[in-house]
Specification:
This protein is α+β, with helices and mostly antiparallel strands. 50% of the residues lie in helices and 8% in strands. A four-stranded mixed β-sheet has the order 2-1-3-4, covered by helices on one side.
Amino acid sequence: MNNNNRHAAMTVYSDPTCPFSHRTRIVLHEKNIDANIEDIIDGQWPEDIASINPSGISPTLVDRDVALFDSNIIISYFEERFLQPALMPNDPISRAKMRLMLYQIDTDWYAQWNVLTGLEQGKASKARKALQEDLTVLAPLFAQGPFFMSKQFSLLDCSLAPLLWRLPLLNIKLPTKAKAVEEYAARIFARDSFQASLSDIERAMRP
């Protein structure tokens, strides 16, 4: 999969700074989906896409006659359409538990991201402390295996990695007792799919 692949029928409109766009790109590369990635800079959308996505939500997927917004909807679509490699468990109970954890990652941890980046009102210092403490408390979960709460690489890892990559940008340094989180992050960052997913702007977030 290449950026600006004009022969691909599927196009993902992606903000190169956005963690939600980033996790969509990780899934694209992990599943090796043939898609064109169009960068959306400073909210400047192509006119035809702006007409079908008036709210300007990034990422946006256009797949022939289908237009989808919201990264969780898009990565679920990828998981159901492109079955291999599977990024969710097979059995319905485990899938439901993973969806619940994805929801918690968004509502708990990415909510702090929104405060720290000014997308939502709130005290930055409080949000920074909350995110640091949450990751520290849950460090034992990161130590249980190579992946987060799963025996194989999953959508949970795709969702966590963009946030962990941005911790230095948020001026968050984890304490020594959260070493397992740092080790987990290093494993995920080393994956080919993660490295391929990085925009130039994201790569510069970690010199």
